Amino acid sequence: MTEERSRRKLSAILSADAVGYSRLMGENENSTVQTLKAYREVMASLIQQHHGRVVDSPGDNLLQAHFLTGREYILELLL
Q1: Over its length of 79 residues, how does the chain's per-residue pLDDT go in tens digits?
Q2: Is the C-alpha dihedral spanning 17, 62, 51, 5 positive or negative?
């Protein structure tokens, strides 16, 4: 077995969904989009501080992040 195949990589995924997104969009689309954008920016900054990376942010799913280790993921959850 080559060394490359025997290496393991520990990773964690964070997925945050906006509760009540459809209702909020119906009540005030502009405000909802602006609030979602602000939250994404804050979360992206925190994720990067903990050596994670944003993979995608579709619709009301605020962020998906890949962390190098489970430790960084746990630190992010605690903040």
Answers
A1: 555 566 666 677 778 888 999 999 999 999 999 999 999 899 888 888 877 888 888 888 866 666 666 677 677 667 6
A2: positive
* Gap between the Cα atoms of 8 and 23, Å rounded: 43
Structure tokens belonging to residue 63? 């962020």
Q: How many domains does the chain have?
A: 1
Picking from 17, 22, 42, the residue whose alpha carbon sits closest to that of residue 32 is 22
Q: Which domain holds residue 28?
A: 7-78
CATH number of the structural domain spanning residue 53: 3.30.70.1230
C-alpha distances in Å from residue 57, one per residue of 18, 20, 27, 34? 11, 17, 22, 14
